Inverse folding.
């Protein structure tokens, strides 16, 4: 089929799959506040109060976590913002106006709060003018929450969502209304929204730059998440072509499901553990169906994001215990919270470089109560001895030891409280900061397992922001420094006796699999939907050949040479296995 | 009705922190409570209202209390103003 037709947009293939559906646009127009007439006053009031509640939860989450970092002035402003959401005079005024004027709540909120801002701006005092900005912040938050609710409620089933950018929380929400595909203007391959799309098995194309300008609401669009193409209002040839491919895909799926209970073993007998990454509890059935031998990474951020406030120990315990029981006798590796300061700090104290900032274990060690709540919940879920705990963003031995000390403290507390847990629970760390990679030998003495997080490791090693589509071509999985660093971690880790898993997106790249197996990894953890396919690949691979391939790659000096070598290997040995999918 | 004319005496004036405290104190009482400065009259139970007042050091405001517990309310709130919002 021709690829030069004018109705095709090219972007990045962020999550595989094909979806043919009507486009549903989320554009800047949605953010504009216009005085719409309403008929259902109760619904409008309900919508107002839900938005106020949601805003309160959002603010409180930020406040709880960051209050120590904010300074007294900023903390006071925060508190005042929270109080505005409860201001009886203001809220009553807004409610009365909605009833009397019968206009949309976002418009009334905007109009009413703006009155106060006008008064502030009229003042000659500069600090009052600044205060108007603080009010702006809270006003926008309320309006955004009213709008978003309205927009989501308007989404019909089975559409392709087209938006400038999607947050992971957005993607999760949409999955509940059965969105077929995602198309975005911005974002790179490893942006969190792309990861969520992959784990939900929803095809996505990102980084199209002008999709929201070119696609209109109601256009029929095809999302080709294999090639990163979006086809607007396809002609009958295009439509037929893709319908046929969707049929072929479902055929392949049934072929792959036949592999479910077979091991991921190379032709010459080396077994690789194939594990699943889990972002959402909803995915657990997908994990079981696809024949994963356990969960290599439970990302707990989603639990945090979905709940608006930090879930208490009991609530977390229930979730982790549920996972452990469902997976038994297979293992579940739970990673402690890996959120960045960019997610919790308010805009005006935002870090200039969040990826180099307050995140992962740094944030956890600064919020010991939060950390301990999670540690205790994980420990308590380990009674069947199939739970492991993993700490993210380790960059120094001090962070490992302080974390272990806290874990010991929690164990001691549980003993005193007579609560059961696995005394020998395995503690591991993410290797994703170059300093941890360099120190792999020493860190291996401190913990039981490593999990290599390639997304961050590559971005830190190559100094390339993985979410930045301008330089996304510099984010290279096969950069010789990446290959050699992986080798260093694996060699040092193995001599130190730790088990080594890889859990980044690189592990789902078919071309990379022979290299990763050849470097000697014990286990690979990927999105559940990628497992059957990887299994088929590994079952068609010779370990001895893969090892030779890896040795050769370690000698090469440029990315194109390695890339070329891996592609050649793949095409000569494995292409037959994958033929139906990628052309 | 109780009316009090009172001077702002702390250096930073009626900034966000004392505004929040005043509203929280006022919320404990049933009586109406208004703050008037240079003709601008705001409801003392509304944080966004109190935040619109520009009351720097040395400026004068009028506090009015009206309702069953106006006496207790005025005592506590006037006292807080007199203490310079605990910032002296």
């Amino acid at each position: 089929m021709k690829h030069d037709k004018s109705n095709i947009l090219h972007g990045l293939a962020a999550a595989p799959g094909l979806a043919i559906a009507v486009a549903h646009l989320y554009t800047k127009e949605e953010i504009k506040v216009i005085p719409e007439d309403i008929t259902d006053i109760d619904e409008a009031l309900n919508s107002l109060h839900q938005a106020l509640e949601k805003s309160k939860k959002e603010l409180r989450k930020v406040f709880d976590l960051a209050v120590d970092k904010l300074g007294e002035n900023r903390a006071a402003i925060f508190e005042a913002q929270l109080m505005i959401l409860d201001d009886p005079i203001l809220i009553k005024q807004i409610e009365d106006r909605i009833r009397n004027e019968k206009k949309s709540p976002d418009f009334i909120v905007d109009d009413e709060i703006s009155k106060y801002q006008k008064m502030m701006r009229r003042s000659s005092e500069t600090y009052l003018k600044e205060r108007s900005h603080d009010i702006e912040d809270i006003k926008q938050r309320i309006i955004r929450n009213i709008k978003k609710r309205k927009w989501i409620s308007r989404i019909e089933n089975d559409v392709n969502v087209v938006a400038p950018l999607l947050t992971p929380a957005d993607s999760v929400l949409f999955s509940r209304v059965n969105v077929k595909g995602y198309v975005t203007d911005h974002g790179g391959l490893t942006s969190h929204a792309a990861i969520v799309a992959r784990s939900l098995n929803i095809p996505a194309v990102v980084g199209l730059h002008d999709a929201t300008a070119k696609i209109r609401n109601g256009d029929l669009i095809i999302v080709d998440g294999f090639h990163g193409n979006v086809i607007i209002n396809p002609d009958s040839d295009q439509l037929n072509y893709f319908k046929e491919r969707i049929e072929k895909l479902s055929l392949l799926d049934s072929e792959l499901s036949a592999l479910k209970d077979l091991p991921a073993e190379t032709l010459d007998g080396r077994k690789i553990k194939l594990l699943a990454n889990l972002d959402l509890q909803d995915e657990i059935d997908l994990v079981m169906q696809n024949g994963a031998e356990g969960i290599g990474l439970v990302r707990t951020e989603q639990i945090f994001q979905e709940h608006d406030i930090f879930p208490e120990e009991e609530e977390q315990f229930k979730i982790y215990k549920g996972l452990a029981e469902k997976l038994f006798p297979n293992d579940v590796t739970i990673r402690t919270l890996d959120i960045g300061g960019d997610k919790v700090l308010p805009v005006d104290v935002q870090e200039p470089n969040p990826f180099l900032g307050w995140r992962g274990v740094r944030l956890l060690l600064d919020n010991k109560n939060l950390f301990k709540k999670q540690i205790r919940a994980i420990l308590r879920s380990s009674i069947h001895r199939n739970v492991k705990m993993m700490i993210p963003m380790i960059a120094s031995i001090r962070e490992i030891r302080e974390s272990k000390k806290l874990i010991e403290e929690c164990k001691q507390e549980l003993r005193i409280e007579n609560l059961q847990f696995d005394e020998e629970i395995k503690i591991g760390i993410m290797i994703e900061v170059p300093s941890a990679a360099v120190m792999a030998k020493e860190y291996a003495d401190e913990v039981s397992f490593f999990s290599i997080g390639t997304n961050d490791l590559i971005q830190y090693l190559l100094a390339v922001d993985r979410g930045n589509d301008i330089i996304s071509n510099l984010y290279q999985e096969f950069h010789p420094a990446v290959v050699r660093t992986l080798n260093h971690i694996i060699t040092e880790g193995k001599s130190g006796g730790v088990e080594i898993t890889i859990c980044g997106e690189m592990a789902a790249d078919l071309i990379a699999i022979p290299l990763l197996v050849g470097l000697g990894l014990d286990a690979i953890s990927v999105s559940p939907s990628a497992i059957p396919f990887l299994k088929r690949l590994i079952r068609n691979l010779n370990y001895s050949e893969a090892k030779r391939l890896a040795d050769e790659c370690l000698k090469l000096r440029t990315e194109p040479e390695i890339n070329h070598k891996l592609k050649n290997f793949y095409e000569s040995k494995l292409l037959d296995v994958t033929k139906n999918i990628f052309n | 009705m109780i009316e009090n004319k009172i001077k702002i005496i702390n250096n930073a004036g009626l900034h966000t922190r004392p505004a929040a405290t005043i509203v929280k104190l006022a919320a404990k009482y049933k009586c109406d409570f208004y703050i008037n400065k240079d003709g601008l009259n705001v409801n003392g139970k509304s944080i966004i209202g109190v935040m619109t007042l520009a009351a720097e050091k040395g400026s004068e405001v009028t506090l009015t209390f009206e309702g069953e517990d106006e006496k207790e309310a005025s005592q506590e709130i006037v006292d807080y103003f007199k203490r310079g919002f605990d910032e002296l």
